[in-house]
Amino acid sequence: MIATIPTELVQQIVEEIDDTRSLKSCSLVASLFRVPSQRMLLDTLSLGDRSPQYLAAKKLLIDSPHIIPYIRALRFRVDWLGYATAASVEAFRFMLNTLTRVRRLAILGIPASTWDSLHRVTCSILDFIRTPAVEEVYISNIAHIPTSVLSELISSVRTLAFKSVTIQQEEYGTIIPVQAQGEPQMQALLLLLGSNGLRAWMQPHLLANLHTLTLIPSDVDWNLLSAASSTLQHLRFDSTVTPTIATTRSWKFPQLSSLRTLSVLATYNGDMTWLPSALSSLLPSLTAGTLRSIHIIYTTRLRASQQYYLQPSIFSLMDSTLHESLPACRVQCSITFGEETPRKPQFGRFVAFVKGGMPKLSGSGRLGFVHLGLMELREYRWYGL
Fold first, then answer.
1. Which runs of consecutive H residues, i.e. helices, occur in the chain?
2. Fewest C-beta in 10 Å: which of 169, 237, 243, 271?
3. Distances (CA, A) of 342 to 149, 266, 346, 348
4. Strand 73-77 to 136-145 pairing
5. Source organism's superkingdom (predicted)?
6. What pLDDT shows up at residue 90?
7. How far apart are CA 242 and CA 91, in angstroms?
């Protein structure tokens, strides 16, 4: 009977599974379910700080070449290179040459890591980034990235994300101009915690094709926002690390004529008191009717015994502001819980709480809710959020 199920239906069933244990079980049900389950299970290859992991990964790819197209994301730890064996370095180069379907690359350092730590594999990494398949690069905890590397990234990759990084400077802190090698390919830029210093290198000509920007609300660079104002379609604030200073800051948005969505990423107990004032400042900068949706995404690992804390005043202020000023704008609230949490009761309480704070939007059918599962969270977990 299972063999008669259409492959499209099998794919849809597998995509609805939101935890790793169930995916593993599903891959053993029947051969019809094995490939789609393995595609999701093996979507990301994560390599740590031990040489044997790199040797084992190489052996896996040689012994099971059929999984190579399944791997769409690669993460590796920079500190491994400090004591990597020659064989493991060669294994890493082999993987970069073999994984031709990878579209996301994450280079993860530790607080003391510098770009020089990558000298044994720098050329291989840059060659890998230049391949058409790679669309996104995330760099975390890496200091002194050369401007030549930044130029390569802007010229080759559509999405760039930085967290706790610095750019190499000449003597006395002189900023070296960054020139894209050809037309800048960068369409999305994420400046996460600890990457504020990178803003000085983002000259307007490098932002010519930028349509998505993620910033920390406590430290918005208005010059950067102004430089991208004519092309920016999606603006996101990462509020998971927002200090209290963001609640009292002065907001001065430039004219954002193309903005379509505003997203806020928050934790269940995070400070969101800055949001109503930010919205009030944002509204005059919008061209009438362009902003179509506002997404508020709560990411948390709550357990059954824990209660989430949401600030009711935030929702009531947003309800009053948005109901009158943006009649065509919808608000979507999303939340995730830890895998061991009884999700339906928790999600039901979340929906009831938000609806109670936003009766106008709820009554007009402009308020939506989504419970994010494991697969939908991959984007946020990818950036360590």
1. 7-15, 20-27, 31-41, 51-63, 86-98, 122-130, 147-156, 222-227, 275-282, 312-325, 343-357, 359-363, 378-382
2. 243
3. 46, 21, 7, 11
4. unpaired
5. Eukaryota
6. 96
7. 40
Q: How far apart are CA 62 and CA 65, in angstroms?
A: 6
Enumerate residues 6+ apart whose C-beta is below 8 A from 162. Answer: 138, 139, 140, 190, 191, 192, 195, 198
Taken as a whole, the chain contains a residue count of 385
Q: According to the model, what pLDDT value does residue 343 have?
A: 64
Determine the Cα–Cα distance for residues 366 and 67; give it in Å rounded to an integer. 43
Distance CA 80, CA 107 (A): 11
Question: What six digits make up the tokens of 164?
Answer: 């706790």
Residues of the chain with pLDDT under 50: 170-174, 304
Q: How far apart are CA 41 and CA 53, in angstroms?
A: 18
8 Å CB contact between 370 and 382: no
Specify the pairing of strand 330-335 against strand 293-299.
parallel
> What are the tens digits of pLDDT across the range 38-86?
787 788 899 988 889 999 999 999 999 999 999 999 999 998 888 899 9
Task: Give the tokens for residue 19.
Answer: 């935890």
Structure tokens belonging to residue 226: 């102004």
> Which residues, in sequence order, are CB contacts of 79 under 8 Å at separation 6+?
49, 109, 110, 113, 117
d(CA 15, CA 37): 9
Distance of alpha carbon 136 from alpha carbon 385, whole angstroms: 17
- Give the model's pLDDT for residue 306: 54
User: What whole-number distance in Å separates Cα of residue 121 and Cα of residue 137?
Assistant: 16
User: What's the predicted TM-score (pTM) here?
Assistant: 0.85
**Please, how many CA atoms are within 13 Å of residue 131, restricted to the half-sphere of its CB?**
17
Q: For 246-269, b where at least 16 C-beta lie within 10 A, e where not — what string? A: bbeeebebeebebbebbbbbbbbe
For the record, the structure tokens of 307 come out as 């209660």
Instruction: Please answer whether residues 280 and 314 qualify as being in contact, where contact means their C-beta atoms are separated by less than 8 angstroms.
Output: no
How many Cα neighbours within 13 Å face the side chain of 348? 4
Question: Tokens standing for 292?
Answer: 């179509």
CA distances from 89 to 47, 65, 71, 86 (A): 12, 20, 20, 5
Q: Which two tokens stand for residue 99?
A: 């994984």
